[in-house]
Amino acid sequence: MEEKYRIAVIGSGPAGLSAAARAAQRGLSHVLLEAEPHLSNTIFRYQKGKFVMAEPGILPLRSPVSFAAGKREQILDIWNRESIALKVNLRARSEVAAVSGERGGFSIKLADQSVVQAEFVVLAIGLQGNIRKLGCPGEDCEVAQYQLDDPDEYNGEAIVVVGAGDAAIENALALADRNRVTIVNRRDEFDRAKAANNAAILKAIEDGRIQCFYNSGPRRVEHLPGKRPRGLLVLNTERGEVQVACDRVIARLGATPPRKFVESCGVKFPSADPTSLPAVSATYESNVPGLHIIGALAGFPLIKQAMNQGYEVVEYIQGDKVEPADEPLLRQKFAAMAGFTSVDSALALIQQRVPVLAPLTRLQLREFLLDSDLRTPAFGEVIFRRNDYTDSFYSIVGGEVAIELDPEKPSNAITLGAGEFFGEMSLISGRRRSGTVRAGHRCILIETPRRSMNKLIHSVAAVKRVVDEAFLRRAIQASVAPEHPPQAVEPLIGSATVQTFKPGEALFREGDPGDSLHLIRKGSVTVSRQIDDREIVLAYVPAGQYVGEMALISNLPRSATVTAAVAVETIRIDGTAFKKVLETEPHVRARFEANYRDRLARNVAALQEPSHGSLIRFLMSQGVGEATDVLLIDESLCVRCDHCEKACADTHGGLSRLDREAGPTFQNLHVPTSCRHCEHPHCMKDCPPDAIKRAPNGEVFISDACIGCGNCQRNCPYGVIQMGVQEDKRPSLWRWLLFGGREPGAPDEAHHHHGDTPKKAAKCDMCKDQAGGPACVRACPTGAALRASPEDFLRVARGE
Amino acid sequence: MARTQTDQSLRIAHESFLVHAGFRYLKVALLLSVAAIAAYIWHDPPGGPNGGTWLGYTLGTIGALQIAWLAWLGRRKRTYRSSIGTVRGWTSAHVYLGLSLALIATLHCAFHFGWNIHTLAYALTLAVIISGIYGVIAYARYPSLITGNRSQATREGWLADLDDINDRSIKLADTLGPDVHRVILASIDRIRIGGGVREILFGTREPERKAFEKVQAQLGETTQFMATQVRPRAEPSVSPDQMQSTVSFMAGRLAGGVDAGEQAQKLLDLLARRRDLTTRINRDIRLQALMQVWLYVHVPLTFALLAALVAHIVSVFIYW
Lengths: 800, 320
Ligand SMILES: Cc1cc2nc3c(=O)[nH]c(=O)nc-3n(C[C@H](O)[C@H](O)[C@H](O)COP(=O)(O)OP(=O)(O)OC[C@H]3O[C@@H](n4cnc5c(N)ncnc54)[C@H](O)[C@@H]3O)c2cc1C
Ligand code: HEM
Ligand code: HEM
Ligand code: SF4
Ligand code: SF4
Hints:
The complex is a heterodimer.
Chain A: E1 3-10, H1 14-25, E2 30-33, H2 41-44, E3 51-52, E4 70-71, H3 72-85, E5 90-91, E6 96-102, E7 105-110, E8 115-123, E9 130-131, E10 144-145, E11 158-162, H4 166-176, E12 180-184, H5 195-206, E13 210-213, E14 217-223, E15 231-237, E16 240-246, E17 248-251, E18 255-256, H6 259-264, E19 291-293, H7 303-317, H8 327-334, H9 343-353, H10 362-371, E20 373-375, E21 382-384, E22 393-398, E23 401-404, E24 414-416, E25 421-422, H11 424-429, E26 436-439, E27 444-448, H12 450-459, H13 461-480, H14 490-495, E28 497-501, E29 506-508, E30 516-522, E31 524-531, E32 534-542, E33 546-547, H15 549-554, E34 561-564, E35 568-574, H16 575-584, H17 586-608, H18 610-621, E36 630-634, H19 643-651, E37 665-666, E38 669-670, E39 692-694, E40 700-702, H20 711-715, E41 722-724, H21 733-739, E42 760-762, H22 775-779, E43 785-788, H23 790-798
Parallel strand pairs in A: 1-2, 1-8, 2-5, 8-19, 10-17, 11-12, 11-17, 12-13
Antiparallel strand pairs in A: 3-4, 6-7, 7-8, 9-18, 14-15, 15-16, 20-27, 21-26, 22-25, 22-27, 23-24, 23-26, 28-35, 29-34, 30-33, 30-35, 31-32, 31-34, 36-38, 36-43, 37-38, 39-40, 41-42
Helix pairs in contact in A: 1-7, 4-5, 12-13, 16-17
Chain B: H1 5-9, H2 20-42, H3 54-76, H4 87-109, H5 117-150, H6 155-175, H7 178-190, H8 197-202, H9 209-224, H10 240-255, H11 262-292, H12 295-319
Bound molecules: flavin-adenine dinucleotide, protoporphyrin IX containing FE (2 copies) and iron/sulfur cluster (2 copies).
The site of one iron/sulfur cluster (SF4) has 14 residues of chain A, from helix 20.
């Protein structure tokens, strides 16, 4: 028996639900296919009681189902009731396995082999992917679960955790305090996990706190009601079948990213990058006619946006025009443009004027402009200054700008005109601005934040190509021959390629032939030599500088090994082409030779003091290789008074963002758990409201837009973000001095009872809003606390 | 403190409070002292120098202002939003100007001492200053010793390890028969972290009181897990000797071949590790206590001094 509908919506998240609800409201024949037994699995899986936020505040909601900020339970409850009231045709437990066909004749195959026919398909499956289940009989029985909200809920139980990733290990360790825990690993190692988790689980197993079955997998799970323990897990192990009696089985096996499924429907992804998303038209149609994509999968990571699109996509499918919900916002933005008539004509004008934006679909362009600012600076106004840490990207719609690369000779400025762009250097390298930019006459600029620009670069191959090429050209010219016109370096550009290196990978090794020069465009490297079986670190070289020129100048093999300290991208310039430039350009030669002598002298000095090298290596292992500013503590001065922590808490709503005692120490130098203000902050990677920003002085901070999803906390490799509630009231100093009670800056026990106030992410903002700089350093009575930047590490490296 | 191991390998711009701003406040304090001495020598009032001459009044006023400002550090230190200098600068000035106060006060009273409220104020001033000097020495000496003793661990980590070792030794002891079990249980029962105040500072292990109580609370909680309780403080603590006796008991068993198996050897290793751990924890507590104990003299005496000073000034004006 086959069913046939006008619209089949796949996935009942906010996007899919809203689309189905609109179809129901319009009386269209429709079906909402959901893999899980309930609506909206992503939100269903939020932590219990999580406060869901309705960002962005300025965007109006347009959907037959209502949504406002509130608790997870409330929201799910409302959606359940409203979808029933609207007679949404929901088919739960209907995972879609395949979609084939085109507009007018889609056939949708479900996991249970039944088939649904539809004229149009709306794909709204989000980005969370499908949770991997145990894959054995009983995987859905009462004993098996795939999530753990609060480990403290369980006491004295026998629990089996299946999986070997971070989530499984963290769950197992957290449960082991009060329960008998067994962990099941399909393989014989835990090496997929973070180093700290790997070490911790191995220790727990060795100590006998957790029992482990290696090379084992589940064969079946049974629920035995009335028995104690109430369940049984049968395992296939190397020694045959083993029965483990248990109260629950918690499987943490990760999720399959949806990409493969989406591609199997015929939808194309623009690049192999894992962050890349399918391109859709202004009516959310993908490259498959009749197949529309909305919500997180289309690149709109917030609930309200997803719901608006659900409404709009049904209107578009029915051939009705709707003004997109963001139209008024765009109109407001463009109002500043002289001669503005309509949003559509302004969009067309921008695409015609700015070639880098030409390959975008209308939807991408709208999204791009919604995130961006349209600026009309007055003549002579500074757009950004040399050494600022900002990271936005600028496209010139009209007029011109002047770029001063050499602060000594502002007259040597380069002029860029309409259609060109700038700011890509800091965007890619994560480092300070390399020049000052001033507005020229009648200047109209689009300023785009880092995240939107990176998203674009990863989803439109043509944009990536253009930006990369400009970077290449400008970087080579700036570092090789700033005094020459661009033609002088043309032969170098022809030979240049972008190369990427994983942390710890060598760019080249001591003794290799010197065949190339590397301009570091992202990350940082260490230079080391092998002496008597010991590797001695000579130097640390950050992005923006080059390595590998020494062998080219001396015509000797490589004198040292250069290793990526973090993920590194370099521009590799061919050695022969470079030597030719050295021959023809005496200026260039002189500069490189001077630098060569300098580096040689420093290397000799560094070899004489190998302790510098060990220190550099230690700092690199602590993530300092990608830091722009770290808090360090000289433990020979630190009197453990914790005033740094108290100062942090007192100036930041009672929540300290640093943990002084935690963290490793080397030669009296202690790296506490505190933000490194990374060049490419990992925490920014996956923040739905784009709440994490970088301020001009380099501070990476979290704005009020945070929705408390905790992604940044998971993504930061240094564990410096915590979720908490800030309080407005501070304890009074006089009250404490005279009567005792809570000391200013002391941790507030009441924090654990913050009631309904939503938790948000909190991290160091380097006290950017305080007079006098970081409170931790200012509060240290002995001078033990210090903040250090890459420039300082360089000095350390040189032993200055 | 000026040159430490770290200074040699790390020249990231930072300095200790003693060298702050190129010894700025040392220079200020020296200047003040030299001026005071010069004035004292030059000034030759009828009846000899004393607190009642114009110079006496001036020096007294300077001294009183110094005391008030020195005591203000306690507040500035906790006014975290303040951007009036850094606490490091304040501490630097506090130390040097505090030292110069000894001279100013002495010249003010012109060496007139007696059994009166005035000399009480003077004596308290000196006591605070001397405790301060001890403080500076302690701040220079103990931080590196604490780091060395810690060898990367945190106190929390230590306690978790201790708990873990106890747990494992009980389990091992279980397999080795009831009398081993009893001895191990008793030895866990006797583990003591810290001790009485006098013992800690002058004897081997006396923690700073608060630290001690915290540790004890934590240890109490964790050992309860094994149905044992930390004994009240009056109980004799496990000295290395007693620890040794548990070890010798085990060694005896090992030699006697009763359970000369892998298990007993393991248990012995555990006990050795536990001894190292308790020694370290107690040493950590002691070092921290030695580093901070002086503040428990410095601050209360400061309050006593302020009271005596007020009394002195009031009494002087009443006599007048
Ligand atoms: C922890 C966390 C907190 C967040 N907090 C907020 C917040 O406070 N405010 C906010 O605006 N946003 C928040 N977000 C982002 C928000 O959850 C997403 O943007 C939103 O859920 C995306 O909606 P969607 O409809 O595109 O996809 P989803 O909500 O992911 O829905 C996809 C649905 O499709 C189903 N599905 C998947 N594959 C198939 C298949 N093959 N067949 C059938 N069904 C399938 C899934 O089961 C799921 O129900 C948060 C995200 C996370 C992870
Ligand atoms: C505003 C501040 C002060 C004033 C106005 C003041 C005034 C005086 C006067 C008038 C005398 C002479 C009294 C006499 O000889 O009988 C005196 C003596 C003395 N003062 Fe002060 N004084 C001040 C601060 C201090 C301080 C800060 C100290 C100690 C730290 C101090 C310690 C003494 C001592 C020890 C004597 C000697 C008492 C004696 O002669 O027996 N005074 N002071
Ligand atoms: C009469 C003179 C002095 C007075 C009234 C005084 C008072 C104080 C007070 C109130 C504090 C704050 C303690 C706290 O809140 O934790 C303090 C701290 C301190 N004092 Fe003094 N002091 C005096 C002299 C000295 C001298 C002479 C020295 C050193 C030579 C000294 C060294 C210190 C040090 C090192 C600190 C600790 C700073 C810190 O850890 O923040 N003091 N003093
Ligand atoms: S929070 Fe973590 S990832 Fe983000 S900048 Fe700081 S250290 Fe880097
Ligand atoms: S700041 Fe962190 S917790 Fe807040 S929304 Fe962004 S990723 Fe989520």
